[in-house]
Each structure stands twice: as structure tokens, then as C-alpha cells.
Write a structure and sequence with these properties.
The structure holds three protein chains of three kinds. Chain A contains two helices and ten strands. By secondary structure, chain A is α+β, with helices and mostly antiparallel strands. By secondary structure, chain C is α/β, with parallel strands linked by helices. Chain C folds into three domains: 1-122 and 258-330, FAD/NAD(P)-binding domain (3-Layer(bba) Sandwich), CATH 3.50.50.60; 124-256, FAD/NAD(P)-binding domain, CATH 3.50.50.60; 332-418, Immunoglobulin-like, CATH 2.60.40. Chain C starts with a strand and ends with a strand. The model of chain C has no long low-confidence stretch (mean pLDDT 95). Classes of the chains: A alpha+beta, B alpha/beta, C alpha/beta.
Chain lengths: 121, 587, 418
């Protein structure tokens, strides 16, 4: 039985959670609310994170374009997704929300521009 | 004589076994092992204070301490392979205030002058890290070379400022006492000032003190009297050195930066030139202005006649919001001050201000074995901050702490002479405080030494002693600023927001005769990065401008000399180049 | 010199300035001008590519860049004038601004009201008395963020972070993702400076250790940073002998606090609060100089951008009211007084007379649990709120009624058992 210790981040109370699997059920100890229970369970079974980074940009005053995932992606896919972004160069102009990479690393999330950049004058 | 000296030394340091040698020039060489670095320094000072001793060369070691030594062999090796790269009349080693001052003085003659500087810029050693005080000359021992040159240099400084257009403020120095018992000490300082020929020293009444420094009124002191020295001035040393260097360059002096002198070439008692890591430069005269390394350069010339024991000094610059209370330097002495013994040899700093009205405290004085040890320590900072008596300023107001190393020898006087051993080699060593104030007189003295030797030297027909003033946006009226931007829009873009330094000023600096290549070199020329954010906002912009103007990659731009790159590499480079698809609107 | 007349001039086009200008225009101010020293609007948010912005205002976690874009897009739909690459050099108490740019030269701008939104800057190595050498490789967290996120360069390969404020934590994650090894985060205080969420997601996710009551006692490396000596600190922040440890690194990131950037404010005689290091403000976020308002991080370091925008709108309302009504006679004030665990309060004072609703922003001195916050006016409790948990990094924002009849005491004490 592998127990996972974590700090809950759903509110500033910062409860210390212990989460483990027992007879096919996920048990959460230390949470003081239902949201905390759910957070513990999710972090144990399928932790997800937003991915924010930059990609190379051409034709603009800036050299990098800020990007964000359209939804959270599995934590274990973060490194792979980043590696995939490594090869990406985008040309200005770009508008916030433009899709830079669709379904990154098969995560179901798109990588989109998180800002608008006009073409250089 | 040797035996007598040896006996005195044994009495003073019975715990040590030391060997002495004394030559006909009354230079003592001392060998043996000391228990600590401070003890070694004490031995050196003790010997130098003896009447029969002119100066002291230390060959002493310290138990359990590896005294750092510069390894010139690889540099010499590298240079030897290149052979002779240049023939000149005069080589000056070191581009601090002394070296640049001499270069500029000699530039009025028809001489080919080369200045070799190991760093990437002029003014990076002792001249960089000091408090910019132009001392009047009341704090130096009468009869010393220092005393004469300090007072003379002080008088010549205004001419330098007039011709070179650096800021010089004769802000004055006032010492007041709050205890009647201290009045004889005030009188004593006044007498020393008179003896040294200091310009218009003055014994002041309490009323006169308040008139000179109205800020004293707020302190509610019971002032008994004091002394005032109107010839105390304030400069930014790097402004002075840069102006000297630029004017020298304007008059055809060559500056070789990033060039380390690894040996002094001499034969049959005559100097032939220098071997640098970039090759040999032949010259009739070699002038040693190498700061903390001057003793090593002198030894290379076959004339080991003094030893530099580095003494570091820590300074603190405070935020402009701590407005200095006084116009000049004010010392308030209430009799409780404990004299710092170690500080007694160097002129320690007081509570002063820069010409931009930032409070400036320090320097402290700490003996260190390493000539490049400019580390700040909590002890030195505590000493420096203890100088502060402004009730509205404290540690929390510090914006910058820095530290410099004084090139002091054991005689604690300047060593300026044509070498009696190697003809054509001129020592200008151990130039510590008041080296800045003395610099114009040192330049004149070296000029005389050279002329006396060379006989008549023709003047340079094209010589121009005037360096045009620099554009200084922050000190202009709004109308002047407007006119300037209309003439040249580059002055309309502010790069350093704390000090209001424009892109135009940075470009002026980059395209000047002494080309700055590092971020700190730009800082010294323009003040960009010297304000309260310390480059937090402007460093990326300065770096970008430097890379653009010098045609370099941003990863090549350094903070200072040596390998001090700011950016190590470009992050991930993309190659695929897909066109972005239009999204479903804002996320 | 070019002369302009404006109803309202806003200094700074970051989140505060943008929100202030938009609100002022929306409320009917006609000639609204924003002066921005950078090349584009957005302020520091343009380098804040991470998410977590906008939860309060937009109910979702946006990237800083996205948050800024909302306001920039809104601005483009208005007739507000935005002057970028324009530096304000001076403000006078008579509400005249002197600013310059390449295009316009010097400008003299006479304003009905001025809103200060210059933001804040980072504390530096000198301010924390960092000891040792001064080599390349020591940068503030914001500079590192700029170099990596905007310029696209890495300033190191092995980093130590000093300070556990949120920017430091965010940069721990950012650097880790970019391949810079983070050797640890050192915090001189016994408690973290940043939010728990960031400690979990930026440190724990990357197995980076946070060392509390610890600091950097010496910097090594004459030209480029070679390493730092860290040590544990006692309660007086003095290094404990024997706990020193040398860590090899080529980047030291300073995340040691933010200071409101009030040089212009001080220059025109605005009275300052030593606690917030921002101007003394009233409930309309007006400074001690009539007609000059302040908002965002130049007023007080908010940390949360949502509060920055809210404060900007408060200031804009005040500025528009000033524009129309002016101030007929000298204002009289009552003070807001922190008590108990409260460290600082904005606004610091409230105009005398007239029942009003005041937006309060406050910070506590130390972490605590189950506490009650009371707003007291003349021994009467006007408002009472419970908090399960409070901590210095989490600014508390709330609205409460005040009559302006006497000093308002904000007190925080142990919660009752109820």
C-alpha cells in the first residue's frame, strides 16, 4: 500500500493529505472538505496541469510567443509536450487563441497563443 | 645597520624568526614565516617605520596560508610566440587614474604612447572602487611625497575639470567637536594643513560651522568649534579616468585593453619594452602604474623595491531618497569615537555624497592577502555603516555595496622615481589614497622625470587638451531636452528609468574612443544601471543595444571583464515553422 | 515643447493603468491618455506567461498574457490615446506631466486628474546586503523571467533561488521546464513568502526543496558566478556557525520582495506610507495631492492582479468624480488603524463624514487559523468576518461600510468557538 503525501491547494487552508488505494478504492485522509477529498483523489489517480511555455516567433519585435494549453493535460505528458514545442516556430501576426499545436502529444489539449502579436512594422 | 635592525625586529616580534637584507638604497628584504597575515603586515610596517629604512620588500610567508600569486608564465608564453607587435616611445602599464593622467600629460609631446590594461576597460582597479574624494591634504604626514603631491594635485584638479568637462564639486569638509577637550586636536589638524600648504584652511566657531553647513542645526549639537577645508572636492572617479583616457586617445595615445604585461624587457640596465600576452611592445620608457600589481611589474624590471599589501575598502551607496544632510563631508567628533587602528594607515572614508546626491559611506580598511579579493563581508559592511550618523538613513536604504583594493606599500607613501637599477623604467607605485587628489601632480612629476632624462622633446602640433562635454539629458531643462530630442530622437528614448539615461547617451558612449564592451562599462560612462533598481529594468535593454552596435550575439555580452557573460545560451530553437491556425476566438 | 490638455492621464499601461483608463472613459471622462514607457501595453504581465490570473474577475485561471490581452483588446475599441515608448520625467502638484518620447519630443500635459499606475520594482542584491563577490549570474527573478520568456535566452544552467515569494517559485518551475537545474530555494523567514499553491505546483512537482530560515551568506566567483555558500539563520537572521554549505551554481535568482515605484509620486510632494512604501491613500485611492490618484502595485504590492484591476477602477471612479466635482474645501480625514495581527491597510485614511462603502486591502503579520476580522468605528463593530486561515502572502480584500465619523480600527483576533 503506497501512501502519497500532499498539500491540498483548493483553498489557503493547505490541508496535509494522505492518499492511498485500498481494496480498489481511493482513500483520502486529512481533507477538511469535499473539494479537498476530490482534489486528493484526482492527484492520486490522474494528476493534471496546465502547460504554459513559449515558442519561437518570427516577424515580430519579440522573439518568443507565449502559449498555454487549452485545458489541463496529464502531468506525465508535460515533458513530452514541451519537447514537441521545442521544434515549433510561428510567424507573426498571431492572435490570442490561435491554435499553435493541435492535440499536443495526444493529450486532447491544444496549445494556443496566450497573447496577440502584430506583425513587425 | 643590519644587525641593529634585526635586533629591533626581534624585540618587537620575539615569536618570529625573520631574516633581513638591506641594500645601499635602504631597501629591506625580509624573509621568514609569520603566524597570520595581519602579523606579516605589522612586521612590514614596523620595518618601514625605522629611520634607516626607505622601503620594505616582503618575502615572508604565513603559516597555513597560500598567498595567491599571479601566474605570468602562460601569458608570457603566449606573447612571446607573437613576437614584436608594436614599437613605441612610451608604454604605460595600467589604465587607472594615474596611468591615464600620465598618458594625457605626455600626449602633448610628440611621443608614441601605448597604454596596456589587463582589464576590458579603463578604470577597473582601485580607481573604480573609491569614494571620489579630492582630499585637501590635511590628513597626510608633512614632509612626505604624498603630502606634496596631494596639495599640488588638489590645486590642479579644477584645470582638469575645466578642460575635460567632468563634474567637480568643491563641497568642502567640515570637522566639528562637541567636547572642549578636543579643541587642541582640531588645532593640530589645522597646523598640519598649514604645514602642508593646504588651500585656505579655517578654524571655525560654532556659528561659522552652522553657516557653512546649515544641516547641522537639525542635529541639536553643542558644537565647541572645528576646522573647515574649502578645498575638499567630490568627483566620480570613473568620469575623471574616462575623460583623461578619451582626451589622451584624442591626442593619439593608443589604448590596448585586455592586454596583460607579463614581463618587462631590459638589458644592460636599460629598459627595452614589455612582453604582453598579445606580443612584445618595444619602448624607450616603461611607466609602471599597475596598481596592486605594481610591485610585481617593478620586480620584472629587475627592481624589487617595494611590496604591495592589498588593503580592501568597502563602500555603500544609499538610495537617493535618503537626502544627504550636508553639502560636503561633515565629521562630528564627540570624543567617544574609537580610532580604528587598522584604518590609521589609509585615509578611511567618511559620510559623504556623490555628485548625484546619493549618500556614500566608506571605505573601510581591511588587510587581505589576495590582490583581487574585493569581497564584501558583514564585518566590513558593519564598519562602513557605522560611519553613518544620518538618523534618516540605514542599512535598509543601501542600493549598492562594493569593494576596492588599495595598492598600499609598507612605507605608506607613493613610490615615484626613475628606477636607479633599470634606466627608462619609471615606478609610479603604491598610489593609494590620496592618489586621486594627487593624480594631476603625479602626472606632472612623471613628465618632469621623463623630460629630465630625454632632454628636449618636441610638442605635438595637433595637441588639444579639451574634451568636449558629454550630452547629459538628466541635467537639462525640459526645454533643452525637447530641443535635443528634436535634433536627435535617440535622446527621446529613456533606457535607464532610475537615472533617466537615454539611448542617445548610451550610443555616444559606445561610439567613443575608448569603446565600452560590457554592461558595467556602459554603467560607468552613462550611469545606466546605477540607480535604485541596479539594472533590473535596463540591463536587458543595454545588453541588446551593446549586441546590436558591436555586431555581437547577445550571449557574447559580458557584465564586466573576463568571462562574465550574462546569457549562456538561446533557449529552444524551433525549426518546423507551421502557420498558426485560427482559434475559436479568445480563450 | 508640445502641449496637451487631458481630462485624465494614466501613467503606466500595465493591468492597473489599463483598467483605470478603461473605467475612466466608461464613466464619461472624454480625453483619456495613457503614457507607457515600454514598447507595448500590458506591463509586467507580458512576461507572466504562467496561468493563475483572473480567477476573481473572470472566474477562470488565465495566463498573465491572456489577462492583459483582454484589457488591450478592450482598449483598442475605445478612443483612449495610448503613447508607448514614452517616459514620464516629472509630475507637478498642479497636475502637469512632463514626458518624452522619440516621436513627440518633450510634452507638457495639463491634466484634470492623474492616475499613477507605475507598478513596482524588485529588491536587489545591495538591498539585502548580499556578501562576497559581485560576478555575472546574479539576477532578480523578474529579470530572469524577462530574459527567458520575452528575449528567449537562458542566463544559467544551475540555479539557486533566494527568496520564496511567488515570482521566485514561478521561476523555479519555469527554469526547471527550460532545463535549468534548480538546486533549491532559500528563504530567510521561517515561513514561505509565496502561496501554498505555488509551493506545491512549482517546487513539489519538480522535487525542489524549500529551505526556510536559510540564506545565502557568500557569493563565489570573481567574473562569473561559481557557487554560493548557504547557511541556516537564527531568529535574528544571523548565520548559525557550522551550518554553512557550498552549492555550485551559475545563476543566483533573487526573489526578495517588491517595492512600489514611487519616484514620480515623491517628486511632486505626495505623502508616503512607510509601511506600504506607497502613497497615503483615501477610500477613492486619492493621494495627499488633490486630483492625483494611485492604483495597482504603485499603491501597495497586491500580488493578485485581480485586486490590481479592482483598485484601478476605484481610483478611476475617484478621478472622474474629481474631474466633475473638484474638491471645494480642504478634505478632512479619519485614519484606518491596524490592530492585532494586521500589518498594513489600504486605504490608510477615509474622508470625514458621509456613510460610504470602502474597499479595504490588508495584509497580516503572521500566519494564523480560525480568526475573526472586525471593523470597528467608535467602539461599534461595523463588520465582522471569519477566516479559516490567513497568511502574509495572501492579501485580504473586502468591502465594509464606514461613516467617516471617527478612526476605523481593523482588528484581527482569535476566532470564537461558535
Amino acid at each position: 500500500m503506497l501512501k502519497k503525501e500532499m498539500i491540498c491547494i483548493v483553498c489557503p487552508n493547505s490541508c496535509r493529505l494522505s492518499v492511498w488505494e485500498e481494496e480498489g478504492r481511493i482513500r483520502v485522509e486529512g481533507a477538511s472538505c469535499a473539494r479537498g477529498m476530490a482534489h486528493g483523489r484526482n492527484e492520486f489517480t490522474h494528476p493534471v496541469r496546465m502547460l504554459t511555455s513559449t515558442v519561437r516567433l518570427e516577424g515580430a519585435r519579440h522573439r518568443r510567443l507565449a502559449v498555454i494549453s487549452s485545458q489541463e493535460i496529464p502531468k506525465e505528458k508535460i515533458r513530452e509536450a514541451l519537447a514537441a514545442l521545442e521544434g515549433v516556430t510561428v510567424s507573426a501576426p498571431v492572435r490570442k487563441g490561435d491554435i499553435i499545436v493541435r492535440n499536443i502529444s495526444g493529450s486532447g489539449a491544444d496549445i494556443v497563443a496566450s497573447r496577440t502579436i502584430p506583425a513587425a512594422e | 645597520m643590519k644587525e641593529e635592525l634585526q635586533k629591533k625586529l626581534r624585540e618587537a616580534f620575539p615569536q618570529l624568526t625573520l631574516d633581513l637584507e638591506i641594500n645601499e638604497r635602504r631597501i629591506v628584504t625580509v624573509r621568514g614565516e609569520c603566524g597570520s597575515w595581519d602579523e606579516l603586515v605589522d612586521v612590514g610596517h614596523f620595518l618601514a617605520k625605522q629611520k634607516e629604512v626607505k622601503n620594505v620588500v616582503s618575502r615572508m610567508t604565513v603559516r597555513g596560508l597560500a598567498i595567491p600569486e599571479k601566474d605570468y608564465a602562460p601569458l608570457a608564453e603566449k606573447g612571446r610566440k607573437k613576437g614584436v607587435i608594436r614599437k613605441a616611445d612610451v608604454v604605460i602599464v595600467g589604465a587607472g587614474v594615474t596611468g591615464c593622467g600620465i598618458a594625457r600629460e605626455l600626449a602633448k609631446y610628440d611621443l608614441d604612447i601605448v597604454v596596456c590594461e589587463m582589464s576590458d576597460d579603463v578604470c577597473t582597479g582601485a580607481s573604480k572602487a573609491n569614494n571620489g574624494n579630492i582630499h585637501p591634504g590635511m590628513a597626510v604626514k608633512p614632509g612626505t611625497l604624498k603630502a606634496r603631491l596631494n596639495v599640488e594635485g588638489n590645486r590642479l584638479f579644477q584645470k582638469w575639470a575645466d578642460e575635460l568637462h567632468f563634474a567637480l564639486d568643491w563641497c568642502g569638509c567640515l570637522g566639528v567637536v562637541t567636547d572642549e577637550k578636543l579643541m587642541p586636536a582640531v588645532e593640530a589638524v589645522y597646523q598640519v594643513a598649514l604645514m602642508n600648504g593646504v588651500y585656505k584652511p579655517e578654524i571655525v566657531s560654532p556659528e561659522r560651522a552652522l553657516e557653512l553647513e546649515p544641516g547641522l542645526a537639525k542635529r541639536n549639537l553643542d558644537i565647541k568649534g572645528g576646522a573647515y577645508f574649502p578645498s575638499f572636492g567630490q568627483v566620480e572617479t570613473y568620469e575623471v579616468v574616462l575623460a583623461l583616457a578619451e582626451n589622451a586617445a584624442q591626442n593619439r595615445t593608443t589604448f590596448l585593453l585586455n592586454t596583460t604585461v607579463a614581463d618587462v624587457l631590459h638589458e644592460n640596465g636599460t629598459v627595452r619594452g614589455v612582453l604582453t600576452d598579445r606580443g612584445i611592445i618595444e619602448a624607450r620608457y616603461v611607466i609602471n602604474c599597475a596598481g596592486v600589481y605594481a610591485d610585481e611589474i617593478s620586480a620584472m624590471a629587475g627592481d624589487a623595491c617595494y611590496t604591495i599589501h592589498p588593503r580592501k575598502g568597502t563602500l555603500a551607496v544609499l538610495d537617493k531618497h535618503c537626502r544627504p544632510e550636508f553639502n560636503g563631508v561633515v565629521m562630528i567628533i564627540d570624543g567617544n569615537q574609537i580610532q580604528n587602528k587598522k584604518n590609521a594607515e589609509s585615509k578611511g572614508g567618511g559620510m559623504g555624497r556623490t555628485n548625484e546626491w546619493q549618500m556614500l559611506l566608506g571605505p573601510s580598511a581591511t588587510e587581505v592577502p589576495d590582490k583581487e579579493d574585493n569581497t564584501t563581508t558583514p564585518e566590513d559592511l558593519a564598519y562602513t555603516m557605522a560611519i553613518n550618523t544620518n538618523p534618516n538613513a540605514g542599512v535598509a536604504d543601501i542600493i549598492r555595496i562594493f569593494c576596492g583594493v588599495r595598492p598600499s606599500d609598507f612605507s605608506e607613501d607613493f613610490v615615484i622615481e626613475m628606477s636607479p637599477v633599470t634606466h627608462g623604467f619609471i615606478n609610479v607605485g603604491a598610489i593609494q589614497s590620496p592618489g586621486l587628489a594627487s593624480a594631476p601632480a603625479i602626472a606632472k612629476m612623471v613628465e618632469e622625470i621623463l623630460l629630465k632624462d630625454a632632454g628636449s622633446v618636441p610638442l605635438r602640433a595637433s595637441y588639444d587638451p579639451v574634451l568636449p562635454p558629454k550630452t547629459n539629458f538628466r541635467h537639462m531643462s525640459h526645454e533643452e531636452q525637447d530641443a535635443l530630442i528634436r535634433k536627435d530622437p535617440r535622446y527621446g528614448r529613456i533606457i535607464c528609468r532610475c537615472e533617466q539615461i537615454t539611448e542617445g547617451e548610451i550610443l555616444d558612449a559606445i561610439h567613443s574612443r575608448i569603446v565600452p564592451t560590457s554592461v558595467d562599462a556602459i554603467k560607468r560612462r552613462t550611469r545606466a544601471g546605477m540607480g535604485r533598481c541596479q539594472g533590473g529594468f535596463c540591463q536587458p535593454k543595454v545588453l541588446e543595444i551593446l549586441a546590436r552596435e558591436l555586431g555581437k550575439d547577445p550571449t557574447e555580452i559580458c557584465l564586466k571583464d573576463g568571462d562574465s557573460r550574462i546569457l549562456l545560451k538561446e533557449n529552444r530553437r524551433g525549426t518546423l515553422n507551421p502557420q498558426p491556425e485560427k482559434g475559436d476566438g479568445p480563450v | 515643447m508640445k502641449k496637451l490638455d487631458m481630462d485624465i492621464a494614466v501613467i503606466g499601461a500595465g493591468p492597473a493603468g489599463l483598467a483605470a483608463a478603461l473605467k475612466a472613459r466608461e464613466l464619461g471622462a472624454e480625453k483619456v491618455l495613457i503614457l507607457e514607457r515600454d514598447t507595448e501595453a500590458g506591463g509586467i504581465l507580458q512576461q507572466c506567461i504562467h496561468d493563475g490570473f483572473g480567477l476573481h474577475r473572470f472566474g477562470k485561471r488565465m495566463a498573465g498574457t491572456e489577462y492583459a490581452q483582454v484589457f488591450i483588446d478592450a482598449l483598442e475599441k475605445t478612443d483612449i490615446t495610448l503613447l508607448t515608448d514614452t517616459m514620464v520625467l516629472e509630475i507637478t502638484a498642479q497636475r502637469t506631466i512632463y514626458a518624452c518620447s522619440r516621436q513627440e519630443g518633450m510634452m507638457e500635459i495639463r491634466c484634470g486628474a492623474i492616475i499613477l499606475a507605475m507598478g513596482c520594482r524588485e529588491r536587489t542584491a545591495g538591498q539585502i546586503q548580499l556578501m562576497g563577490y559581485r560576478p555575472a549570474g546574479i539576477l532578480t527573478a523578474g529579470s530572469v523571467q524577462r530574459y527567458i520568456n520575452l528575449e528567449g535566452y537562458l542566463p544559467g544552467s544551475r540555479a539557486v533561488i533566494l527568496g520564496s515569494g511567488d515570482i521566485g517559485l514561478i521561476m523555479a518551475r519555469r527554469m526547471s521546464l527550460e532545463g535549468i537545474k534548480v538546486e533549491g530555494v532559500y528563504e530567510v523567514m521561517p515561513h514561505p513568502g509565496g502561496l501554498t499553491r505555488n509551493i506545491v505546483q512549482c517546487l513539489h512537482d519538480f522535487d525542489i526543496l524549500l529551505h526556510l530560515s536559510s540564506g545565502v551568506v557568500k557569493v563565489h566567483g570573481k567574473k562569473r558566478l561559481e557557487g554560493v555558500t548557504v547557511a541556516r539563520l537564527d531568529e535574528n537572521r544571523t548565520p548559525i556557525p557550522g551550518t554553512e554549505e557550498y552549492i555550485e551554481c551559475d545563476l543566483l535568482v533573487l526573489a526578495v520582495g517588491l517595492i512600489p515605484e514611487n519616484e514620480l509620486s515623491i517628486g511632486c510632494g505626495i505623502e508616503m506610507d512607510p509601511k506600504t512604501k506607497g502613497p497615503l491613500l483615501d477610500e477613492e485611492f486619492m493621494t495627499s495631492v488633490p486630483g492625483i490618484f494611485a492604483c495597482g502595485n504603485v499603491a501597495v504590492v497586491f500580488d493578485l492582479v485581480d485586486y490590481v484591476s479592482d483598485s484601478a477602477e476605484t481610483a478611476a471612479r475617484g478621478a472622474v468624480r474629481f474631474l466633475w466635482e473638484g474638491i471645494l474645501e480642504p478634505l478632512q480625514y479619519v485614519k484606518t488603524v491596524p490592530s492585532g495581527n494586521i500589518n498594513l491597510i489600504v486605504p490608510q485614511r477615509i474622508r470625514r463624514g458621509g456613510e460610504k462603502t470602502v474597499s479595504f486591502y490588508l495584509r497580516v503579520k503572521k500566519p494564523d487559523k480560525k480568526v475573526v476580522l472586525e471593523v470597528q468605528e467608535k467602539d461599534r463593530v461595523r463588520e465582522s468576518r471569519r477566516f479559516a486561515f490567513v497568511a502574509p502572502p495572501e492579501m485580504i480584500a473586502f468591502k465594509a461600510a464606514a461613516s467617516g465619523s471617527g478612526d476605523v480600527i481593523l482588528d484581527m483576533k482569535e476566532g470564537s468557538h461558535a
